[in-house]
Q: What sequence folds into this?
């Protein structure tokens, strides 16, 4: 590095894959829980039923396959994400409050390898950051082939 025309030591700039890998690790270790904790409770309009996510109990399980097997079998190298959820029926005058808990599957999260790439359908993919939507949680409702409403949520992290 040159400062005022003098050599003042050499600075090593980390590679893009290292920066992406470290960012992804931060997202898995901190960001995912942080984003989910922003909406731990959802209530119905009458405020009689609450849906809670107990994010402190979340679990990202080990992948079922190895990286090389994902490439060979044209699969996505990912891990399943689970969290404890509770449905609470608030007490009315003649009933007590009830709660039912269950571990729910939130989705599969593609895993980044140490080279900073993902394996999606057996193909190595590199993610280039683009701002497509603001960070947050987006909900969508669609009708399936039987005419039943299917609700999905997408989490866009600012990590």
A:
């Amino acid at each position: 590095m040159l400062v005022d025309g003098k050599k003042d030591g050499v600075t090593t700039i980390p590679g893009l894959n290292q920066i992406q890998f470290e960012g992804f690790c931060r997202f898995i270790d901190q960001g995912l829980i942080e984003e989910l904790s922003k909406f731990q409770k959802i209530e119905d309009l009458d405020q009689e039923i609450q849906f809670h996510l107990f994010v402190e109990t979340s679990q990202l399980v080990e992948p079922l396959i190895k990286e090389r097997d994902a490439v060979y079998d044209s699969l996505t190298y990912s891990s399943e994400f689970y969290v404890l959820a509770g449905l609470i029926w608030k007490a009315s005058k003649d009933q007590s409050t009830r709660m039912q808990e269950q571990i729910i599957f939130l989705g599969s999260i593609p895993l980044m390898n140490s080279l900073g790439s993902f394996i999606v359908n057996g193909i190595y993919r590199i993610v280039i950051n683009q701002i497509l939507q603001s960070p947050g949680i987006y909900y969508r409702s669609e009708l399936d082939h039987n005419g039943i409403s299917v609700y999905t949520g997408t989490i866009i992290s600012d990590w």
About this structure: The first strand starts at residue 2 and ends at 3.
